[in-house]
Amino acid sequence: MRKEPIRIQLPASKEQFRSLRAGDEVLLTGTLVTSRDMGHKLMVERHPEFLKPLLKGTVIYHCGPIVMEKEDGWKIISAGPTTSSREEPFQADVIAHYGIGGVIGKGGMGEKTSKAMVEHGAVYFHATGGAGALLAKRIIKVKDVHMLEEFGVPEAFWVLEVEDFPAVVTMDSIGGSLHRQILADSAARRQELLDL
Amino acid sequence: MSQFREWGVELIKKAATDLPADVESALKRSRDSEVPGSTAQNVLDNILTNIALARAESTPLCQDTGLVNFFVTAPSGTDFEALKGDLIAATREATKRGYLRPNVVQALTGKNTGDNVGENLPYFLFEVGQGPEIIVNVMLKGGGSENVGAQYRLPDARINAGRDLQGVERAMIDAVFNAQGFGCAPGVLGVCIGGDRAGSFMGAKKQLLRPIDDVNPDPELAAFEARLVEQCNKLGIGPMGFGGKNSVLAAKVGWLHRHTACFYVSLTYMCWANRRAKLIVADGKATIV
Fold first, then answer.
1. CB of A41 less than 8 A from some CB of B
2. Kindly report the CA angle at B280 between B212 and B86, in degrees rounded to 5?
3. Is the dihedral of CA B254, B256, B260, B265 positive or negative?
4. Closest C-alpha to B237, from B97, B40, B44
5. Domain locations in chain A?
6. Residues of chain B with pLDDT > 70: what percent?
7. What's the complex ipTM?
8. Residues A8, A14, A15, A16, Cα dihedral to 10°
9. Known active-site residue A40
10. Contacts of residue B185, Cβ cutoff 8 Å, sequence gap at least 6
């Protein structure tokens, strides 16, 4: 039997993020911010202050959405997760500096990020890769956008309001990681299959 | 707007929003083969719901609409320059209408061109066909999946791979293992054995134009494709890397003659969002499938 998903209102407290465990299904509601390669590079190299109040206690979504400008503002058309491991060199620093409670992405992240999550009480939320149309339905409003001109649409910081955004916790703040286990198992299978 | 430009927009829209039936059927078979109630099955349910939603609402099923690749086959005497101009214009228009995310950036500055057009992009491959019709295949190739493409030079002692089909199999098992966490599984493997380095990658990409249920006309390669899927699935990576039986949906394998000193195996990995569509123009009438 599947457990009922845990509902989380963003921003949330450190205790709430710390209480989550790898394997938990969640529904996120509230405000979050997208960022990917250019944003993470900027956050680590310059630590821009304007992001602090936006990020405190919420999560960064590794996502470059398709966005259309309509008469009544921006509209998100398609918005699934991008590969998180590209941000592995930056994520630990971003978690420490901005006090985020986690990131949403796909594919999981490495040991450096896992360590930062333990230290600062953050988690990794895994969303279904490629499910851009489905996940866009859970984004109910574009509240703001930063660095659009400089970074372009996919790389800009989009401040989004989400409702019941579905994800699975795959890395937690006590060092648990579903990705680590599957990687270890598949590495053993690889050795066998390659007759090494 | 020229007719070809309008057909081009429809072609791109079809590819971005309406996953081919053969891919969807393969994903349904994968879904049914996973353990009921498992995360793997739940992920595939999400994927299938997303496919239906994107089709019903004509929205791009994945936000990474990739780089646009056109494979054009047309009779000799076709005005290829005009055709290319129309398809470039179609790419710009499809971006403006929200069927494509602007993905193309200047290599060094990272500056987005805003319209998916740039140096060598969209990508074109023109071939002169024997028939009277013009065929335009479009493939939308996402960045995550493109990042896990790989080329092996056999023999390769690191993976115990020699210059034979077993060696090719081992190279592909290694590549699928390395794709874990990057390309969205279960993906499709476009494989080319032989060729020079550049030709081998192009040969691998062209294999991805074959439908999932297409059977290789070479019986030895047909058997090898089935074996490749079976062996790669033993890795247990599963849908989106959550563990499970389905890491690979299909493998499509071709070959090219090679220099006697060189033996390359190239993989072009396509994520489960295997987006392609075909425009056929005959007697001035267009059909998009």
1. no
2. 115
3. negative
4. B40
5. 6-193
6. 100
7. 0.94
8. 10
9. yes
10. B179, B237, B238, B239, B240, B241, B246, B247, B248, B271, B272
From B62's Cα to the closest Cα of chain A, the distance in A is: 4
Sign of dihedral through CA atoms B184, B189, B195, B199? negative
Task: Provide the residue type at A178 as one letter.
Answer: L
**Going by DSSP bridges, is the β-strand pair B285-288/B67-74 parallel, antiparallel, or unpaired?**
unpaired
d(CA B251, CA B26): 12
Which residues on chain A are in Cβ contact (under 8 Å) with B175? none
pLDDT at B2: 83
Average pLDDT over residues B86-92: 98
* Six token digits for residue B169: 């199999």
CATH architecture group of domain A6-193: Alpha-Beta Barrel (3.20)
Q: Measure the CA–CA gap between B58 and B52, rounded to whole angstroms.
A: 10
Minimal C-alpha gap between A187 and chain B (Å): 8
Burial B132-168 (b: 16+ CB within 10 A, else e): eebbbbbbbbbbbbbebbbbbebebeebbbeeebebb
Report the pLDDT averaged over residues B37-63. 96
Are B18 and B99 contacting, i.e. CB atoms less than 8 angstroms apart? Answer: no
Residues 156-185 of A with CB under 8 A from B: 166, 168, 178-179, 182-183, 185
The residue whose two tokens read 């579905």 is A166
Question: Residues 6 or more apart from A139 whose CB is under 8 A from it?
Answer: A65, A76, A79, A160, A161, A162, A165
A78/B62 CB distance under 8 A: yes
Q: What is the pLDDT of residue A3?
A: 76
Give the distance from residue A49's alpha carbon to the nearest chain B alpha carbon, in angstroms.
23
Question: What stretches of A47-170 show up as alpha helix (H) in DSSP?
Answer: 52-55, 88-98, 111-120, 132-136, 148-151
- Other C-beta atoms lying within 10 Å of the C-beta of residue B284: 6
Helix (H) or strand (E) holding A18: helix A14-19
CB contact under 8 A, B60 and A137: no
Query: Are B9 and B97 within 8 A, CB to CB?
Result: yes
Pick from A83, A152, A154: CB nearest B144? A83
Main-chain phi, psi angles of B259, to 5 degrees: -70, 140
> Which residue has 């989380």 as its token pair?
A8
Is residue B283 predicted with pLDDT exceeding 70? yes
Residue B115 pLDDT > 70 = yes
pLDDT tens for A154-187 read 999 999 999 999 999 999 999 999 999 999 999 9
Q: Which residues lie closer than 8 Å to B63 by C-beta, 6 or more apart? A: A63, A64, A65, A66, A77, A78, A79, A80, A132, A136, B101
